[in-house]
Predict the structure.
Amino acid sequence: MFRTVAELVEMAEKENISISEVMIRQEMDVKEKTREEIFTEMERNLEVMEQAINDSLKGKGVTSVTGLTGGDAVRIQEYMKNKTPLSGNLMMDAVSKAMGTNEVNAAMGTICATPTAGSAGVVPGTLFAVKEQLNPTHEQMIRYLFTAGAFGFVVANNAFISGAAGGCQAEVGSAGAMASAAIVEMAGGTPQQSADAFAMTLKNMLGLVCDPVAGLVEVPCVKRNAGGASLAIVSADMALAGVKSRIPCDEVIGAMYQIGKRMPATLRETGEGGLAATPTGKALKEKIFGPSA
């Protein structure tokens, strides 16, 4: 069993297998299930992800009960049809699908927490966007999730993945990094390149606070998934180009952990600081829940 990214990469390189294969074998061993059973379980997650994206793009999209979020995924798709996005169609497609997934979450729909509900859009958003360019097989799409899961496993065991524990760097930061590593493998990169992509994404998310307006997983969460998805794609491209992270992946995870420990409670999902404490943030909270006692 691996507990660090260094061990994960070493196992993959030593046996000349992919990161996803390392994770699959570990799941088979830990859960004492067959390869087919493990694949079937992950395939269900893939189906939930795809359904959430499809739901978010129907008609005018989905809107939360509060009205704080909704319809932006569709707006971006319409923008892509009528304009040439400055950041390119693949990037904006990922952004749209990442936001759409989180709009479904905000509207109390069914999503797959990857690694959390608040960051659930990044991994599927990037997957179903790069799918259009890389044309992966169904098995490769499932392996994408195993690769993301392998890196998420390391983060969960060495730091944290919840905003309450370590800020949004632990949620969208981890999700973006997980997606980046998975993109690299799907694009034919090496295990070390996946690790470099993960590190570069997470490095650029360090210090990101969790400051949900009115304490709801809507603002700024939905749009932060857009940021996580875009950064994941950029970092994957850099790693595939041969750019390396000067700080080892496990040390980046360690830095995230230390930063999270030092982050004040007001910036860790309590809805008491950051954007939640702005005049508009407070006004929105009062509009939804009424004047504070």
